[in-house]
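This section describes the prediction task in plain terms. A model, or a person checking by hand, is given the sequence of a single protein chain and must write out its three-dimensional structure as a string of tokens. No templates, partner chains or ligands are provided. The sample shown here is typical of the held-out split.
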Amino acid sequence: MSFFIWDIEVVGNETYQTSEVRNYITKHYVTAGQRIKTVDTKKLEEALRTHYDAFAFVSCEMKGTCLIVHIKETIPIKNKTKNEAPCNLLAHKDGVVISIITRSGTPLVKKGDTVKKGQILISGVISYQNDAKETYEEALVPADGDIVIKTLLPYQDSFSLSYYEKKKMKEYKHGFGIRFFDKDRMLWEPSLSEKEYDQTEKIWHFKLGRTFYFPFAVIHHKYEAYSLVRKTYTEARAKEVAKKHLKNYFRKLSKKGLTITQNNVKIERKGDQMCATGTLTVLEATGKISLIDENAYQKESEHESDGETH
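The expected answer:
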């Protein structure tokens, strides 16, 4: 059983739910019960970076019988990609280049340039030239560098002055099931009344140590009843709530390494809604990895050489 994958973990994602990312992986690339040696982690990493725009960096590793997918949705100012395959670094969104330091590869933009999402900023193709500035050889390398751009982030938040607050009823119900080879089967589910319930799920995997998983797990569903009590914000209180939402967003951006340089968000009441709309000017690192297809590049180079010969 140690030759097969029995669990897939996804860590570091925020924009997309773990279950969504995991389902994408199991549907298109890796499934529980697949032989470890057949897993192409480089292909999976590139597929995730391409499919999910929010994923700036993806790294996969095998630990025991567990595939762990590490995700970063922003790029650190000091971009330690640990990527060894030839690649380009792309702009992950529109912006203006504030600074660029190239450690490996060929820079294609400079400070002050306006760049578009998907544009190559540092190329993984380096050229060797003679004294006459003629290229006599090219090589592929993993592009590496630190790039900071200034971008505009739209911000929008609105909520009704009337809202419902949950009141717990201290009534609990439980359901139990098993997971066998990535298939779930609930053995017992309680009968639920017409009340509202919060549902939580816990899964206990059978494993040896921390990473040697077996294809068995126990599932527990917990249902907690509650009632809804209708309340209404005063306009002053609603503005405080809107400001709190904005501050929490600031903290989230700061945690990701973004620096806010200008706040153009306006908070105002519109009918029975409190609305906060505007833009934030931020500085953030960019440089999304895009692997270079070496075979395609070689064919293109040979085609260009043939054209020059003719």
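For orientation: The chain has four helices and 18 strands.
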